[in-house]
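Practice problem 4.
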Protein backbone atom coordinates (compact mmCIF):
# COMPACT_ATOMS: atom_id res chain seq x y z
CA UNK A 1 0.00 0.00 0.00
CA UNK A 2 1.17 3.52 -0.71
CA UNK A 3 -0.01 6.75 0.88
CA UNK A 4 0.35 8.47 -2.49
CA UNK A 5 -2.94 6.90 -3.62
CA UNK A 6 -4.83 6.89 -0.31
CA UNK A 7 -7.84 9.19 -0.37
CA UNK A 8 -7.56 9.94 -4.08
CA UNK A 9 -10.50 9.70 -6.49
CA UNK A 10 -9.61 7.77 -9.65
CA UNK A 11 -11.76 7.14 -12.69
CA UNK A 12 -11.60 3.58 -14.03
CA UNK A 13 -12.49 3.05 -17.69
CA UNK A 14 -12.40 -0.65 -18.58
CA UNK A 15 -14.82 -2.72 -20.68
CA UNK A 16 -13.82 -6.19 -19.47
CA UNK A 17 -15.82 -7.01 -16.35
CA UNK A 18 -13.19 -9.26 -14.73
CA UNK A 19 -10.41 -6.71 -15.21
CA UNK A 20 -12.62 -3.84 -14.03
CA UNK A 21 -13.55 -5.78 -10.90
CA UNK A 22 -9.93 -6.65 -10.19
CA UNK A 23 -8.89 -3.01 -10.64
CA UNK A 24 -11.62 -1.73 -8.35
CA UNK A 25 -10.69 -4.21 -5.60
CA UNK A 26 -6.99 -3.41 -5.91
CA UNK A 27 -7.59 0.36 -5.88
CA UNK A 28 -9.93 0.16 -2.90
CA UNK A 29 -7.28 -1.87 -1.04
CA UNK A 30 -4.91 1.04 -1.78
CA UNK A 31 -7.37 3.46 -0.18
CA UNK A 32 -8.65 4.90 -3.46
CA UNK A 33 -12.21 6.09 -4.00
CA UNK A 34 -13.10 4.61 -7.38
CA UNK A 35 -15.25 6.55 -9.83
CA UNK A 36 -16.86 4.03 -12.14
CA UNK A 37 -15.88 1.66 -13.50
CA UNK A 38 -17.39 2.43 -16.87
CA UNK A 39 -16.96 0.48 -20.07
CA UNK A 40 -17.83 2.87 -22.89
CA UNK A 41 -16.48 6.12 -24.25
CA UNK A 42 -19.85 7.84 -23.79
CA UNK A 43 -20.13 6.78 -20.13
CA UNK A 44 -16.58 7.90 -19.47
CA UNK A 45 -17.11 11.28 -21.14
CA UNK A 46 -20.25 11.82 -19.05
CA UNK A 47 -18.33 11.06 -15.85
CA UNK A 48 -15.47 13.36 -16.83
CA UNK A 49 -17.95 16.16 -17.52
CA UNK A 50 -19.65 15.63 -14.17
CA UNK A 51 -16.68 14.72 -11.93
CA UNK A 52 -13.58 16.34 -13.46
CA UNK A 53 -12.95 18.85 -10.68
CA UNK A 54 -13.06 16.03 -8.12
CA UNK A 55 -10.82 13.53 -9.95
CA UNK A 56 -7.17 13.03 -9.05
CA UNK A 57 -6.40 10.69 -11.95
CA UNK A 58 -7.72 8.01 -14.27
CA UNK A 59 -6.95 4.58 -15.64
CA UNK A 60 -7.99 4.10 -19.26
CA UNK A 61 -8.23 0.93 -21.31
CA UNK A 62 -7.53 1.99 -24.89
CA UNK A 63 -10.02 -0.26 -26.70
CA UNK A 64 -13.58 -0.16 -25.36
CA UNK A 65 -15.90 -2.40 -27.37
CA UNK A 66 -14.06 -1.46 -30.58
CA UNK A 67 -14.06 2.26 -29.75
CA UNK A 68 -10.80 3.98 -28.90
CA UNK A 69 -10.62 5.87 -25.61
CA UNK A 70 -8.75 8.87 -27.01
CA UNK A 71 -11.73 11.30 -26.75
CA UNK A 72 -11.75 10.54 -23.01
CA UNK A 73 -7.99 11.07 -22.81
CA UNK A 74 -8.44 14.44 -24.55
CA UNK A 75 -11.27 15.45 -22.20
CA UNK A 76 -9.14 14.56 -19.17
CA UNK A 77 -6.16 16.46 -20.56
CA UNK A 78 -8.35 19.51 -21.19
CA UNK A 79 -9.24 19.69 -17.49
CA UNK A 80 -5.80 18.74 -16.15
CA UNK A 81 -6.58 15.22 -14.91
CA UNK A 82 -3.60 12.88 -15.42
CA UNK A 83 -4.15 9.32 -16.60
CA UNK A 84 -2.46 6.04 -17.38
CA UNK A 85 -3.32 3.68 -20.21
CA UNK A 86 -3.98 0.09 -19.09
CA UNK A 87 -3.69 -1.87 -22.29
CA UNK A 88 -2.35 -4.75 -24.25
CA UNK A 89 -1.30 -2.37 -27.04
CA UNK A 90 2.39 -1.86 -27.65
CA UNK A 91 3.84 1.64 -27.57
CA UNK A 92 4.09 1.65 -31.37
CA UNK A 93 0.29 1.23 -31.67
CA UNK A 94 -0.41 4.37 -29.64
CA UNK A 95 -0.64 7.65 -31.57
CA UNK A 96 2.29 10.05 -31.13
CA UNK A 97 0.05 12.58 -29.36
CA UNK A 98 -0.11 10.14 -26.42
CA UNK A 99 3.50 8.93 -26.51
CA UNK A 100 4.28 10.48 -23.11
CA UNK A 101 1.28 8.95 -21.34
CA UNK A 102 2.29 6.21 -18.89
CA UNK A 103 1.26 2.76 -20.10
CA UNK A 104 0.71 -0.29 -17.93
CA UNK A 105 0.62 -3.49 -19.94
CA UNK A 106 -1.99 -6.18 -19.39
CA UNK A 107 -2.00 -8.43 -17.53
CA UNK A 108 -1.83 -5.69 -14.93
CA UNK A 109 0.76 -5.73 -12.17
CA UNK A 110 0.01 -3.98 -8.87
CA UNK A 111 3.57 -2.81 -8.28
CA UNK A 112 3.77 -1.32 -11.76
CA UNK A 113 0.39 0.38 -11.33
CA UNK A 114 1.52 1.89 -8.03
CA UNK A 115 4.47 3.48 -9.80
CA UNK A 116 2.63 4.58 -12.95
CA UNK A 117 -0.74 5.92 -11.77
CA UNK A 118 -0.38 9.68 -11.98
CA UNK A 119 -2.30 11.74 -9.45
CA UNK A 120 -2.85 15.45 -9.18
CA UNK A 121 -2.99 17.19 -5.85
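Answer key:
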Amino acid sequence: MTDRLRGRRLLVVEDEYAIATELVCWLEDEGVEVVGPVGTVDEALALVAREAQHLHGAMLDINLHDQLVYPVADALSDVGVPFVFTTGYSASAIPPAYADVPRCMKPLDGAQLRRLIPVRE
